[in-house]
UniProtKB/TrEMBL annotation:
Alphabetical UniProt keywords: Electron transport, Membrane, Mitochondrion, NAD, Respiratory chain, Translocase, Transmembrane, Transmembrane helix, Transport
Reactions mediated catalytically: a ubiquinone + NADH + 5 H(+)(in) = a ubiquinol + NAD(+) + 4 H(+)(out)
Transmembrane spans: 21-41, 47-70, 82-101, 121-142
Descriptive protein name: NADH-ubiquinone oxidoreductase chain 6
Keyword NAD attached: yes
Signal peptide bounds: none
Organism ancestry: Eukaryota, Metazoa, Ecdysozoa, Arthropoda, Hexapoda
Gene Ontology CC entries for this record: mitochondrial membrane
Gene source species: Proisotoma minuta
A molecular-function term among this protein's GO annotations: NADH dehydrogenase (ubiquinone) activity
Length: 157
């Protein structure tokens, strides 16, 4: 688990070294995968992390379509400074993972987590309101796009 947190921090540091939009999209996808992996380990709920990743992936697909339509002819250049920083980060990760494996770890997390730990009882009304709002938004967007029989953005130049 500590290795995933460290990889997440390294991935966050790479945002500053990348300037191409598609590379940034790849970094966001990697960060989403790491976040979902951490949620799976922490909550012991594989379905929650799977659904969370699918939601992230759906949003990234929309983002990818817009980015490729805006910066389709931009060449991706490698930055020598980014390569050296990446090599140093990988070396630190390998060193840290070997030293963490030698340390005694705390007892493992519970293997089963009840569903009641996922939601707070005080926030049930707010959670139900947000779910209703999202459902209503989905229905309105479907009605708007089906009434026009066109996508939301027209790609005719």
């Amino acid at each position: 688990m500590m290795s995933l947190i460290f990889v997440s921090l390294m991935n966050s540091a790479l945002y500053f070294l990348s300037s191409h939009p598609i590379a940034l999209t790849g970094l966001i996808l990697t960060q989403a995968l790491i976040t979902c992996g951490l949620a799976w380990i922490t909550l012991s709920l594989s379905w929650f992390s799977y659904i969370l990743f699918l939601i992230f992936l759906g949003g990234l697909m929309v983002l990818f379509v817009y980015i490729t339509s805006l910066a389709s002819n931009e060449m991706m250049k490698t930055n020598p400074r980014a390569s050296s920083v990446l090599i140093v980060m990988v070396m630190i990760l390998m060193w840290a993972s070997s030293s963490w494996s030698e340390m005694t770890m705390s007892p493992p997390l519970e293997t089963t987590a009840p569903l009641s730990h996922l939601f707070s009882h005080q926030m049930v009304a707010l959670t139900a309101g947000v779910m209703t709002f999202l459902l209503l938004t989905l229905v309105v967007i479907v009605k708007i796009t089906s009434a026009l029989n066109t996508p939301l953005k027209n790609f005719i130049f």
